[in-house]
Amino acid sequence: MSATTSVVRRSAAIKRGITVGVIGGLLGAALMAMYAMVVSATVKDVGFFTPLYHIASAFIDPTAMMTSIEDAAGGDATYFTAGPAVVGLVVHMMTGAVAGALFGALVALRPAPRWVVVLAGAAFGVVVMLVNNFIGLPLVADLFGGGDPIADMPSIVGWGTFTVEHLIYGLALGAVAAARLATTTVPSRRLATRSA
Q1: Does residue 157 form part of some domain?
Q2: How far apart are CA 126 and CA 18, in angstroms?
Q3: How many domains does the chain divide into?
Q4: What does the alpha-carbon distance between residue 133 and residue 113 come to, in Å, rounded to a whole number?
Q5: 140-176 b/e with 16+ CB inside 10 Å = b?
Q6: H or E, element range at 189
Q7: How far, rounded to the nearest angstrom, does the alpha carbon of residue 174 sit from its chain's CA centroid?
Q8: Quick check: 120 and 107 in contact, CB under 8 A?
Q9: Using the 8-state DSSP alphabet, how is residue 134 labeled?
Q10: In which element (H, E) is residue 146 found?
Q11: What is the distance in angstroms between the CA of the first residue and the CA of the last residue of the chain?
């Protein structure tokens, strides 16, 4: 195989990995959002749509988030206002898609068995959480004036909940990548070992 053919194949694999990663990232972000919203309304008692308003408050006025929390305290967990909800949803889904594209490209560059890709997805979800917590969220809070509600999002949401959310994201991303990108054959060096 020529060097040019190798580069073309590698480039095609990366493009496919990015596409699969975006799809997996969108699925993972959707499942993560659903979990966050259910926990927010039932366990945390701060309102069903509050997670979307919380994300949106990085870029827009936090009034929707505060109203949702206040209404939930008064017994109405379903306060809804479309604009902030859409902003929060779009930011959340795009973040999931971008992180998913990165994961997909990495898997395409280094194919592995399905189970490894699923576990790598879970680990990647935790890495995304840590990078967001220590770099992304404080940076966004600084740049857009989101303040402590954004910079301290994991503490406000609760580290346990925040971790489970990101594990859900990573497992869904890993499952999609495993189904579409993982290897199904045993590497040749393992075959050689077994036959000896």
Answers
A1: yes
A2: 20
A3: 1
A4: 30
A5: bbeeeebeebbbebbeebeeebbbbbbbbbbbbbbbb
A6: helix 188-195
A7: 11
A8: yes
A9: I
A10: none
A11: 29
62 is written with which tokens?
């936090």
- The 10s digit of each residue's pLDDT in 116-162 is 999 999 999 999 999 999 999 999 999 999 889 999 999 999 999 99
Asked, for residue 5, whether it belongs to a domain, the answer is no
21-70 pLDDT, tens digit each: 999 999 999 999 999 999 999 999 999 999 999 999 999 999 999 999 99
Q: Using the CB atoms, write b or e for 66-94: b if 16+ within 10 Å.
A: ebbbebbeeeebebeeeebbebbbebbbe
Vertex 164: Cα angle to 27 and 130 (nearest 5): 90
Structural domain harbouring 167: 19-183
Helix (H) or strand (E) segment spanning residue 133: none
In whole angstroms, what separates CA 57 from the centre of its chain? Answer: 18
Asked if residue 114 is part of any domain, the answer here is yes
Identify the three-state secondary structure at position 48.
coil
3-state secondary structure of 60: coil
Nearest to 64 by CA among 36, 43, 39, 83: 83
Instruction: Find where tokens 């190798």 sit.
Output: 6
The residues near 126 (Cβ < 8 Å, ≥ 6 apart) are 163, 166, 167, 170
